[in-house]
Amino acid sequence: MTTVIKRSKIAAAMAGVMALTGVGLASANDTSLSRLQAEQTQTNRANAASQERIDSLFEQSSDLLADYRAVVAEFEALRLYNDHVQRLVDDQNATLDSLQRQIDGIEETRQGVVPLMYKMIDSLDEFVQLDIPIHREQRERRVERLREVMVRSEVTDSEKFRQIIEAYQIEMDYGVGLIAYEGTLNFEGQDIAVDYLHVGRIAFLAQSLDMRNAWVWDNDNREWSRVDDSFLNPLTQAIRMSRRQTAFDVVRLPVFAAENAE
After folding, report:
1. Taking the model in full, what pTM does it have?
2. Hey, which of 84, 175, 191, 221 has its CA 20 to 30 A from 113?
3. DSSP state of 190
4. How many CA atoms lie within 13 A of 17 on its CB side?
């Protein structure tokens, strides 16, 4: 009886110890689990924070990369534009150099053109004096105007040259066509109202307005000579032809040759 009781007590004591030990182990396991859960939570938070920083850095990197690419593109555009502007500047500098050379050449040309213009005026004056006296006074005044314009500073050299060339052109025009105009002829000291007629520079004639007298210019002797009355009607017809008062036709006119006037 005693032995059984003792064994029972021992067993009860052992069970109590085991129960206490189990309670201790369960308590220890709960503490470790809580710690592990806390650490896991901390780790998750840390990972989340790290991921947020990674995401933020990635976004910043993406923004910086986009900015970098934009800067590179802008730099390339500016480089191309600068190259374009430089080519324009180079072309403008070349144009300026060309213009400067032309200006220098113009000045040299001007130094040669001005004496040439004076020579042309002198030659024109001499020609007018030696030519048959078609519009004599008008032509002499034209030469004088050219001499006056040469010393006017407000008139450009190009305009002076243009007027000289124009005067030469007018002189050329006198050499063609059948032209009549009214004027006054001084013959043997008497002024006579006449119709002048010139056939280019081949013949220069005059007929009194009453159509009773006619003259032909002798350029060798620089004087007027009376023509035969047989030329009065043809001369009248030629004057009317020049004024478009009658149809053009063949007429016989006196031409002053080297020895005679017919």
Report:
1. 0.57
2. 175
3. E
4. 6
